């Protein structure tokens, strides 16, 4: 996962979709170009309030860190090592969360040079839930998105993908588990077939750009439409 995604639903819509208490205090707005350390929605379980929609900063800062300076390097946690990593093991065991998204971006090298961005999103417009883990550092709520080996057609775009959780897996991901590692399986191929791999414009490569135009489909050059080999970025 290259580190960009989109999340544009309102707090009201997300709290209804995820059956959660809205604790965002009006701090959320649509973002078509989420980048590391941006504040975005996540769904977690609070000991007192139950399932809560919160605002967290993308890039986990372990509670024992001396500063938050390294957060941008902690946006993703690999499923292969999340249970054993010093930074991620405790959040994975005790503080798992759902990260709502409309879709995510990846880049591939074009045959003639340069990089072509793609946007992966449900064809039916439904919400995605990335598997996440969260932590508090001082007063800051932070999180990482888990990634796994890409499956099916997604592997043609990038060798990694976020660990996506179909709706029927949301409860299990948020609940205490005797064996959390059993939760790390990718979604079934039939479910992944409902994702569109959409070529989009290069403007998404600049974190200063935002807006619905970033996710609009663009036409590819003839050589790429013909299926010539592309090199993963």
Task: Using brief descriptors, characterize the structure shown.
233 residues; 14 strands; six-stranded antiparallel beta sheet; mainly beta; 5 helices; globular
Secondary structure: elements and pairs:
Elements: E1 5-7, H1 11-17, E2 21-22, E3 31-34, E4 39-46, E5 50-58, E6 76-78, H2 89-94, E7 96-101, E8 103-109, E9 115-122, E10 128-137, E11 140-149, E12 160-162, H3 170-174, H4 189-192, E13 195-199, H5 222-225, E14 231-232
Parallel strand pairs: 2-5, 5-11, 6-11
Antiparallel strand pairs: 1-3, 1-8, 4-5, 7-10, 8-9, 8-14, 9-13, 10-11, 11-12
Describe the protein's architecture and organization.
- The chain has 233 residues and is mainly β.
- The chain has 5 helices and 14 strands.
- The protein is globular.
- The chain starts with a strand and ends with a strand.
């Amino acid at each position: 996962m290259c580190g960009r995604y989109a999340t544009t639903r309102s707090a009201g819509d997300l709290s209804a979709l995820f059956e959660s208490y809205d604790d965002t205090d009006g701090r959320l707005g649509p973002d078509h170009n989420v980048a590391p350390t941006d504040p975005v929605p996540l769904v977690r379980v609070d000991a007192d309030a139950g399932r809560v929609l919160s605002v967290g900063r993308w890039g986990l800062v372990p509670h024992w860190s001396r500063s938050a300076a390294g957060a941008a390097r902690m946006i993703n946690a690999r499923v292969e090592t999340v249970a054993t990593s010093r930074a991620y093991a405790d959040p994975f065991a005790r503080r798992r969360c759902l990260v709502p998204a409309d879709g995510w971006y990846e880049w591939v090298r074009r045959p003639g040079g340069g990089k072509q961005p793609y946007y992966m999103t449900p064809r039916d417009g439904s919400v995605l839930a990335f598997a996440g883990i969260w932590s508090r550092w001082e007063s800051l709520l932070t999180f990482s998105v888990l990634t796994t080996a890409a499956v099916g057609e997604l592997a043609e775009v990038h060798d990694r993908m976020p660990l996506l959780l179909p709706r029927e897996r949301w409860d299990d991901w948020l609940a205490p588990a005797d064996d959390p590692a059993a939760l790390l399986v990718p979604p079934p191929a039939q479910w992944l077939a409902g994702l569109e791999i959409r070529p989009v414009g290069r403007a998404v490569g600049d974190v200063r750009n935002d807006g619905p135009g970033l996710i609009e489909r663009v036409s590819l050059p003839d050589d790429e439409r013909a299926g010539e080999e592309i090199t993963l970025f």
